[in-house]
Amino acid sequence: MIRLLFLLVTTLAAIFVVLSVYGSGNLRAGHQTDETGQAASQESEAATPPLPELPETPASVGADGKPPADLVQAATQTPERVQQFPGPDLRPSPEYAGETPEPAAAPTDAQGPILYVTGTSVNFRSGPSTNDRVIGALEGGAAVEALGPTNGDWVHIRDGGGRIGYISGQFLSADVP
C-alpha cells in the first residue's frame, strides 16, 4: 500500500514538473478582456491578424433580399433516405389486423390432460426446481400434456415438440386462453 502511494505521488510530481517546464504558463492570460469588451492581450497586436469584416447580408441573398436564381436549394440536393429491411414483408400482429392467433397445437398422441401456459414466456426446466437447467421457454397459450399430477407446485409435462420437463404449476391452466 505504501509503495502504491509512493508511486502515485511520484507520478503526479513528474507530471507537474513536465507541465511546468514545457507548458506555456497561464493559457487564460491572452484571452482577458478590458472595460470596453476588447481583448487585452499581453502579446503584440502584430502576432494576431485582425478578423475580416463580414458583409451585412449573407452571400445567398441578393441585393433585392431574394436568393439568386442559380442557387440550388439543399432539399433538392439531398436524396431521400429509404430504410432497407432484409427478410420477408412485415405483417401487423394478429390483434391489430383483426385476426385471432391460432390456438397452440396439443402434443400428438396425448394421453394425459391438456394444460395451457398462462404466462407470456415461461421457462421449461429439466427438473422440478428453479435450480434445474432450462430446456426452453414456452409462450403464452402453448398447449402441453401433463404427465403427472396437476395440482402440485411443479407439473411434469411434455410440450408440442415432444420435450419432457417441468413447469411451475402457477403458469398452467386447463382453460384455453
TrEMBL record:
It holds the Pfam family SH3_3. Gene3D superfamilies: SH3 Domains. PROSITE patterns: SH3B. It comes from the Bacteria. Residues 32-110 are annotated as: Disordered. Residues 94-107 have a biased composition (Low complexity). Residues 112-176 form the SH3b domain. This is SH3 domain-containing protein.
